[in-house]
Amino acid sequence: MTSYCLPLIRGKLPSLRMSERKVAEFIMDHPDEVVNMSSLQLGAAAGVSESTVVKCSQSLGFDGFVQLKLALARDLAGSTATAFGHVEPDDGPEVVMQKVFNTSAAALSDTMKVLDPVRLSAAAALIENAGAVSFFGMGASGIVALDAKQKLMRIGIAAECELDPHLELTRVSLMKPDDVVVALSHSGETSDVIDVLRLAGDVGVHTVCITNYPDSSAARLAEIVLLTSAAESSLRGGALASRIAQLSIVDCLFVIIAMARYDDAMTCLVKSRQAVSARKGWRR
């Protein structure tokens, strides 16, 4: 049985049946009430049958509704009572500040709950032993892809990043079987990312996907899926919380790889730092 509830629901929500989604959304919107409800009461409140509540619990990976409530209670026990949720147009600066920081903090905490250390280690091993690594993402995820390239370059990993999908497809088409494509997509439904992962599979390249949704199209195409758990709102498209979650996974990969090749990594870091330091004060 999984030990968390709300992060799991967030990731599974798009893949649930419509009736089960009503239950899941009610739990997300009223967690404090649900923890004291019976399955019959929750079904009535969500406008579905009691059996749908049980089926939803099972679709989320729990044995039943009782196990879901136990996990939900643990989630609530670790939450804070400060301002939280979507930023509203009439929120003042202090409330906006609290919501943005709390949402980002929650994204880190929830991502740590859903991120599988075994898969994280496997992804790091693929990258460490790859002939070449190509990071790819669109929009905000592309910013994280660039950060990943910059980090891994500094410890001697042959990392590249293309923000143009046509150039990325060209690169992937010429990659070798021991190479790795790391695709980033919060939704897991970005068409350009899906195209890249599909081509990588056809070429026989190893694939890693960093996404918020385990049942998304991108996740289904990837060899290894590394999950984030960050909420986005319509007012904050490409939200900082989702980027922070992705960046933290990239940092984990970086540290694991650097520790695995410690001597070489430190040598590369010293050389790259000296190269940059030597240019201080230089002007065109």
Percent helix:
55-70%
So what's the CATH class of the largest domain?
Alpha Beta
Q: What is the molecular shape? A: globular
SS content category? alpha/beta
Number of domains: 2
Largest sheet: 5 strands, parallel
Return the CATH topology of the largest domain.
Answer: Rossmann fold
Q: Count of DSSP helices?
A: 14
- Overall average residue pLDDT: 90
CATH superfamily of the largest domain: Glucose-6-phosphate isomerase like protein, domain 1
Tell me the radius of gyration. 21 Å
Number of strands: 5
Q: Cα distance, first to last residue?
A: 60 Å
CATH architecture of the largest domain: 3-Layer(aba) Sandwich
Low-pLDDT windows of residues: none
Explain what you see.
This protein has 284 residues and is α/β, with parallel strands linked by helices. 58% of the residues lie in helices and 9% in strands. The protein is built from 14 helices and 5 strands. The chain has helices at residues 6-12, 18-29, 31-34, 39-46, 50-59, 65-77, 93-114, 117-128, 140-153, 165-173, 191-203, 217-221, 240-260, 262-277, and strands at 133-137, 159-162, 180-185, 206-211, 224-227. A 5-stranded parallel beta sheet has the order 2-1-3-4-5, with helices on both faces. It is globular and about 65 Å long. 40% of the residues are buried.
